[in-house]
Structure formats: structure tokens, C-alpha cells
Amino acid sequence: MNEKGAIENEVAIVSGGLGYIGREIGCHLAQRGYKTVLLYLSPQEDMKAIRSSFKSANVYFYQCDITDSAKMKEVLDAIEEELGSISVGIHAAHSRLVRKNILDVDEVAFREQFSVGVFGGFNFLQQIALKMRPRKKGVLIGVTTAAIECDVSADSFGGLIASKTALVGGYLSSKFALKGLLTELAQSTAGLGIRVHTVAPGFVAGGLNDDLPPRLFEFLEEKSPTGQLTKVEDIAKSVIALIHPGESVKPFTVVIDELEG
């Protein structure tokens, strides 16, 4: 899978494929020559424009509720029948954030934070892994967050972000759970030719954070040790680097724009 000519028949699938991060990952996969499948829950009003925004013809859109295991299996079976064997699975889907302090979130809202990211991620990642197992080949990647990897003490940049964006109502808990799921998958697929990784982006000025005021993004960018926030294209580039490791052994977790300093 190291040269474009060798991956033209490879199928890569992205959950949350119409989301801010998922769509960018899909663009990079398509540019590399993959048959790129973008899963989405609900069609958007500008679906025609979204389709035309991809320069590659090898981008395919499948509607699927990944929290429904039977539907997930049905869609994956259809993808492999129509396009070929899946060699890359990337889980980028997550529920909308609940802008409440964890002390103020009710049980229903807390469970919802796990619905797509964790339980949907289980359906998506496990079922793809089961398809990869007999072929002894594949890469699985989950998108978590640098907030569960880095220093969040009061005097750190991570602590500053936490203090300014603390109203996430169980989001961090779900990302810890997703990393746990990916850890178990990595252990269970060891020796099967399947690689499992997590990509942990820093704070992104868009996507799930698009409801926050622009001034907050400017403030955090000014305070950032790197002078910038995480760019969505850097997340996609990190995913591509994990899929195509070259000669080096890649770590289980890649943290983008570490929140330290």
C-alpha cells in the first residue's frame, strides 16, 4: 500500500464521513488513490455540492446508522460486494457535544455521548476487523483527542483549554472509552496482520467546536505554545502517515499539537 498504483483497488471507509474531520480524511484518502467510502447518518441539503467537492471519482457515499449493528453489517457487506475488500477503517464519527458541565448533565445526555463514538465505534471497528481477520491485512484508526493524552494542570495550555471549553458534557469520558476499545482491538488483532492506532488531535477551531465564538479561537491561538490550533488537514495527514508507515514502526497513539507548555 506504499505506492498509489498499488492502492487503486484498496477500499478505505470513514465513519462520520460528512463531518469536519471525516470529510478531510476522505479527501486525503481519495487523493492517494483509495476507493473512499464515506458513511453518514443523515443526508445534508447540499449533498450534490458535497459530492462535487471531491475531485476524485473514487468517492462513494453510504447512509448508515452505525449504532445499529444489523444495519452496519448490511452496509459493510454491500460495500465489499460492490467495491471490494475493505483494507482501511477510520472511525471519526461522534455525537454532537452537550455544552454543559458534567455536574449538570443528566443520564440520557451522558449516554448519548457514548452512543455514536463508543457503541457505534464498536460496531464499526469490530465488524471491519472481523472481515480483515481471514485476509490478515488491514489498518484501523480511531480519532480521539489530545485532551486525554496531555497535561491539563492549571498552568498548562491543556489546562487553559480545559478551563475555557469545559462544557463538553461527557465528551472526554467517551474518548477515554474509545481509546480503551481501540487498545483491546490492538491486543486482540496482534499477529493477525491488522494494525490499530489512535489519532489524538488538539483543539480544532471547527467541527464539534463550530458553536464557540471566534474570539475564543483567537485567544487560544495566541496562547498556544505553537502559535496555532490544530488544523484539520494535519489530522488527515497524520492518518495517512499511519496507514503508510514506510520503514518505521508507528506508535499506537499519535498526538497532534500536544497541549503542553
Structural write-up:
By secondary structure, this protein is α/β, with parallel strands linked by helices. The protein has one domain: Rossmann fold, CATH 3.40.50.720. A seven-stranded parallel β-sheet has the order 3-2-1-4-5-6-7, with helices on both faces. Helix 4 runs parallel beside helix 5. The model has no long low-confidence stretch (mean pLDDT 85).
Number of DSSP helices? 9
- What is the CATH architecture term? 3-Layer(aba) Sandwich
In what order do the strands lie side by side in the largest sheet?
A: 3-2-1-4-5-6-7
Question: Which CATH first-tier class would you pick?
Answer: Alpha Beta
Estimated helix fraction? 40-55%
Summed up, the domain count is: 1
Q: Helix/strand/pairing class, anyone?
A: alpha/beta
CATH superfamily: NAD(P)-binding Rossmann-like Domain
Shape: globular
Tally of strands: 7
CATH topology: Rossmann fold
Mean pLDDT: 85
Biggest sheet descriptor? 7 strands, parallel
Q: Classify the beta-strand content into a percent band.
A: 15-25%
Give the topology string: H per helix, E per strand.
HEHEHEHEHEHHEHHE
User: Uncertain spans, ≥5 residues at pLDDT below 50?
Assistant: none
Query: How large, in whole angstroms, is the Cα Rg?
Result: 18 Å
Intertermini distance: 37 Å
